[in-house]
Amino acid sequence: MRVHSLYIYPVKSLAGIPVPFFDMDDFGPAGDRRWMIVDSDQRFVTQRDYPMLARVHTALEGDYVRVSIPGEGDYLLLPGEEEARVLVWRDWVKAVYSTAEASEALSRFCGVDFRFVYMPDTSFRRVDAGRVTEERRVSFADGFPFLVTNLASLDELNSRLETPVEIRRFRPNIVVEGATAWSEDDWRQLMIGEQAFSLVKPCSRCVMTTVDPDTGVKGSDLQPLRTLGQYRRTVDGVIFGMNAIHEAPGTVRVGDPVINRTTG
Q: What is the per-residue pLDDT across 136-186, written as a single tens digit (0 to 9) for each?
């Protein structure tokens, strides 16, 4: 097995970026989901309700993130001075509002009053304590620093679909090739290059998988979620991929060997 591809998502629920490698810090992939969008109630905003967000692209420029908003142009995301408490799932988190220009442009594009917020280093959001006993942190990601997926599982799913889908529908960080379909269900410990990972929870999937990442349109046929739900439904939900935590800072690269060190 080896790493087929890597992705980071500088802004939660905006388009991701394929990268040849990423460094890892305390949060997970460096720069991953440190930015988020909130509504006027300070609640997080995603493609679940606003699928057009898939059309807002992101790019990295040194330590900064640039967003490209259709019809509005390009904007650097810059933390401002105003602090906020924002809600992501069940967690209220300390954040900082961005400067106004990018938020105003995004609000015009979506037709709703939205603001970009940034999670500073001083903010601490804990990984799900029910799954990880260590007091580990996570960014604005749904619950864990990493999502690991298996390319063979995508191929098997696509064999059941009239129109195949790309792995981008599932928003992974690490895509593994060379495994058998659905073998990731049993992975608990992986070595990826020189980095150790613990796979702590199957990833339950939602309506975001039905959003075309190129057009930002939610499919009326609810694919691939409908087909996936016919045979991948568990007590954890409709499953595709595994949530993971890393054991130490380091670097992961496309092409790195992947070794299953699961025991028991």
A: 899 999 989 999 999 999 999 999 999 999 999 999 999 999 999 999 999
- Per the CB < 8 A criterion, the answer to whether 134 and 158 are in contact is no
Q: Running DSSP on this structure, what letter comes out for residue 235?
A: T
* 206: its two tokens: 């939602």
Query: Rounded CA gap, 213 and 94, in Å?
Result: 30
Contacts of 224 (CB under 8 A, 6+ apart): 157, 161, 165, 169, 209, 210
Strand partners, 7: 18
DSSP state of 130: T
pTM of the complete model:
0.95
Q: What's the number of CA atoms in the CB half-sphere (13 Å) around residue 67?
A: 29
Cis previous bond, 224, omega within 30:
yes
- How confident is the model over 69-109, as pLDDT tens digits? 999 999 999 999 999 999 999 999 999 999 999 999 999 99
Residue with tokens 């150790």: 196
Are 16 and 100 within 8 A, CB to CB? no
Radius of gyration over every alpha carbon of the chain, rounded to an integer in angstroms:
18
